[in-house]
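Suppose you are handed only two things: the residues of a chain and a line of SMILES describing zinc ion. What would the bound structure be? This form records exactly that question and the answer produced for it, so the two can be stored side by side and reused later without any lookup.

QUESTION INPUTS
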Amino acid sequence: MIERLVGFDTVSAKSNLALIDFVQNHLESQGARCRRSVSAEGTKANLLASLGPEVPGGVVLSGHSDVVPVEGQPWDSDPFILREEGGCLYGRGTADMKSFLAIALGLVPEFSARPLARPIHLAFSYDEEVGCTGVHGIISDITENLPPPDMVIVGEPTDMQIINGHKGCFLFETRVTGQAAHSSQPHHGGNAIIAAGRLIAFLADMAAARRAAAQEGNPFDPPYTTFNLGQIDGGKAINIVAQDCCLTWEFRPIPGEDTDAIVATFEAYAENEVLPALSEFAPGASIVTKRLATVLPLAPEENGAAESLVRHLSGANASSVVSFGTEGGLFQAAGLSAVVFGPGSIDQAHKANEFITLEQVAACEAFLLKLRDWAAA
Ligand SMILES: [Zn+2]
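ANSWER OUTPUT
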């Protein structure tokens, strides 16, 4: 099944419908109840499949169907043809994160072999790798159409270790529009680069304030909300007052950070401090910030249902936090207990010759069979 799923080229920019068709056929032939939520363009879909009784209290096994691109990476073999060598399976998505989904799919006959007292739901999302934008459809489907499940296990690669917290990631584009003029006549224009520079300095100040206020004992690395300015594009020539400047920037909040306040503070500074100066000689000037994507942080839960179950079934008694984002925070924000726990290592994700060890595959299979026993009990 890992070979089958890796064989679908589901790089985020492409359609995942061939994979979803295959998975849905497989699941429906085993008696699963399937629901799809489709992207606005209709080229991608989420799949939510349910096994067992239509009652509350089930578990959602969740993963994303898309993978990151392979272009420019020195692969030793075709990334979309699974290759086994030296106890490892190589291919794009083996670690991140088709193996988790494939192992669950392969076990559906085992899940159905005994009457389940609690439902097991399988969730396949699209566009996780471009900012967790597809999973919103699954979350709506779950909260609107399913008897409430108790918990979500997000099977991202954690080496089968419990991850109960991660930072979020908020991505933005800010487009500054001033007015071009001859550089000798700045009083006939509005310089978008100068305005953007003030915005950049403000973001850097916000970042420095959070670093200075870092809490002792916070488990994240680094232990505070970080900011990044990723791209800047502005101006036409040295002797023209720059009319346009575009920035992309992000911040990665620790759980508990007031993310609305960060956005509101930035917007207020742009509106009240920067825009008036920019528009002094450029009445049509504007500063427009667009949210590109939102990955919410996952906060460790006190006695959370998801973590408790995974601890109980896996025997793991430690948990930790990571810096990469997952769909877990979005499930948690929708009121579902969530934990990140899956086979393979994030160290292999997004790289050439991505792989998962057969040992991790076996460990995941054993875990999911214990989960089946729990659901059947
Ligand atoms: Zn992933």
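WHAT STANDS OUT: The mean pLDDT is 97. The pocket of zinc ion is lined by residues 64, 96-97, 128, 156 (CB under 6 Å).
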